[in-house]
Amino acid sequence: MKNWKNTDKWKAWLPPTLAIAGAIILWDLYVIISGIDRWLLPRPHEIAIELFASRALIAERMTETLTATAIGLLAAIIASLILATWMDLSRRVRQTVYPLLVVSQSIPYFVIAPLLIIWFGFGLTPKVLVVMLVCLFPMTVNLADGYMQVDRDILRVLQSMGATRWQIYKMVKLPGALPSFFSGLKIAGTYSVLGTVVSEMLGGNQGLGILLIRSMKSFEVARMFATIVVIVALSLAVYGMIQGLANLIMPWNKQKQTR
Amino acid sequence: MTALSDKLVLKEISKSFGGMTVLDRVSLTVRSGEFVSIIGPSGSGKSTLLDIIAGLTGPDHGQVWIDGKETTSRRGHAAYMPQKDVLLPWRTIVDNVAIPLELNGMSKKEARQEAERWLPQFGLGGFAKHYPHQLSGGMRQRAAFLRTCLCKKELMLLDEPFGSLDALTRLDMQRWLMEVWQAFHTSVLLITHDIEEAIFLSDRIYVFSPRPGKVAGEVSVELERPRRVEMTASEVFVRTKAKLMHILQTSYPMVSTHAQKQEWRG
Predict the structure, then answer these.
(1) How far apart are CA A65 and CA B117, in angstroms?
(2) Which residue from B89, B100, B134 is facing A161, i.e. has the nearest CB?
(3) Distance CA A32, CA A38 (A)
(4) Which of the residues A222, A255, B132, B144 has the least number of beta carbons within 10 Å of its own beta carbon?
(5) Among all residues of chain A, which has the CA nearest to that of B145?
(6) How many CB atoms lie within 10 A of CB B210?
(7) How many CA atoms lie within 13 A of A8 on its CB side?
(8) Which of A216-220, B52-56, B182-186, B205-209 has the least mean pLDDT?
C-alpha cells in the first residue's frame, strides 16, 4: 500500500522535472550554438554559480521581500474575511462593494506604487498596501462566491433545528466556503511576491526588487537571472505552503481528491 | 382548539408563489405516536408543506399547531429531514450526528460522547471517525436519520428520505425505520412517491392532488403492528392500495391512464 503510494508520487513528479530539465538543456544549447553575448543571456550554470556566490546578499534581500509579502498577505486575508462575510450578510453591501473590488483590480498597481511611496514613505507600508491591492480581489470574490454556493438544504436543516446566524456561519458557511477561499488564496499568494517585488522596483530601498533593478542597470545579467530564480522559487514556496495549509485545515477535501 | 392527543394540526394552509397557488386550504392532523404519510405526484406542494410545518416559510393563510400551541412561522418545534442526506462533508459521522446536541448548548465533547452511544443501534458502529463520502448511500441516510432523532422532537418530518436509494436498500431502510419508530414512539409525517412504502409504514395516508396541492382523500391502513414484509401480499394491503389508486385517479380527471402512469413516475 505504502509502496504503491510512493511510486504514484514519483510518477507525478517525473513529467514536470523532465520538462524543466529539458528547457534548461535547450537554453544551454542555444547559448553555445548561437554564440550570443554572455551579458545578454548567460548559460544556466553561470546563474547557479552567481546564485551561490552572492547567497548572503540575496538572502538578506529575500528576507525583506518575504516580510512585506507575509504582512500584506495576512492583512489581505483578514480584510477579505471581514469584507466577504459582510457582503454575504447584506445584499446592499454586496452591491456596493463588488464594483469597487473590480475597480481595485483594474487599477494598474505599478502606477499607484510610486504614489503610495510618496504618501507613506519608503518603509513597509506602501509595499504592504500594494500586496493588499493585488490580493484582496481574488480572495474576497472567491470567499463571497463560496458562501453563496453552500448547499441550501444544509442551511434549511440547521435552520429547522433553530440554529442562530452565527452558528450557521461557524458550522456550515465558513467551512463550506473554505475550498473556494483557498483557491482564491492560491492565486493571491502567487501574485503577492511579484506585487512586492514590483513595488520595490518602483521606488523602494530594500528587497529583491532593488536587487533586480541594480543588477539590470549594471548589466550583471547573471545576478539578475539569479534573482528571478529566487522570485520564482519564493512564489512556488508560497503556493506550496498554501496548498499544505489547505490539506491541513481541510482533511476531508484531500481525502476526496485522492480517492 | 385542538384535542390533547393531537401532535400536529394544520388549519386551512394556503400558499402561493408568484401568483401560482401551490397549496390550497390544506388541513390535516397527526396524532401523538401516529405514523402518517402524504402521497401525491410532483407539483402537489408536499415539500412546501413540510417547510411551512418546520417554520422555514410562512403560509399565506392558515395556521400550524404543534402540541396545542400555535407555531406558525416558528422554527425548532419539529425535526426535519430532507430527501438528500445533507451531511456536512467536513465533519466526521459522529460530529455530524452531534450537531443538534451542540445547537442545544451541549459542549462539543459531551455531544460527541452522546452521539457515539447511538451509532451502533443505527448500524454505524465503527464508522464514527469516517467522513460522509466514505459511506454508502444507505449508511449516510441512517446517519442523517439519527441526527434527526437527536433533535429530540416528538414530531418528525421526513421528506422522501429513501427516494434516492436503490430498491433493495430502500426495503431494508423501511424495515429498519419501523423498528426505530416503534422504539422511539415519535409522531411521524412522511412524504413519499411510493404507494407501497406509504401503506407498509403508515397508520394513515393523505392523498394530495396536484396544482394546486390539496387533500384529495384520506385512507386508514388497517394492518396490525408490528408490520412484516409478508403483509405486502395480504388482502388488506391490496385493498388499501386499490383505494389509494382510486383516489389518485379521480383527482386527475383530465388525463388518460397512460399519461397518469408517466407523470407518476416522473
Answers:
(1) 54
(2) B100
(3) 10
(4) A255
(5) A157
(6) 17
(7) 6
(8) B182-186
Q: Is A149 near chain B, with CB under 8 Å?
A: no
Question: What would the pLDDT profile of A102-156 be if each residue is shown by its tens digit?
Answer: 888 888 888 888 888 888 887 888 889 989 988 999 999 999 999 998 888 888 8
Quote the CA–CA distance of B103 and B153 in Å, as a whole number.
Answer: 14
Asked if this assembly's ipTM is beyond 0.95, the reply is: no
Phi then psi dihedrals of residue A177, to 5 deg: -90, -10
H or E segment to which residue B51 belongs:
helix B46-54
Q: Which of A154, A155, A158, A161 to mutate to test the interface with B (most CBs of B within 10 A)?
A: A161
Residue B230 pLDDT exceeds 90: no
- Residue type for B61, please? H
Record: contact B99-A161, CB cut-off 8 A: yes
How many CB atoms are closer than 10 A to CB A198?
18
C-alpha cell of residue A226 = 539569479
Backbone dihedral region for residue A206 (phi beyond 0: left; psi -120 to 50: alpha; all else: beta): beta
pLDDT digits (tens, 9 = 90+) for B206-228: 999 887 888 988 888 988 888 88
User: A255 vs B133: CB contact, 8 Å cut-off?
Assistant: yes
Coil/strand/helix, residue B47: helix
Q: Quick one: how far is CA B136 from the chain centroid?
A: 21
Place of cell 550583471: A220
Integer Cα distance of B237 and B202 in angstroms:
11
Residue A160 is nearest to which of B54, B102, B134, comparing CB atoms?
B54
Please give the residue of chain B at the shortest CA–CA distance from A170. B103
Nearest by CB: B86 against A151, A163, A167: A151
**Start-to-end CA span in chain B (Å):** 40
- Establish if A256 touches chain B: CB-CB under 8 angstroms: yes
The number of beta carbons lying within 10 Å of the beta carbon of residue A71 is 17
Q: Which residues of B touch A175 (CB under 8 A)?
A: 88, 90
pLDDT one-digit tens code per residue, B135-159: 888 889 889 988 988 888 888 999 9
Q: How many CB atoms lie within 10 A of CB A116?
A: 20
CA dihedral B35, B41, B45, B50 (to 10 degrees): 20
Burial class for A155, CB neighbours closer than 10 Å (0-12, 13-18, 19+): middle
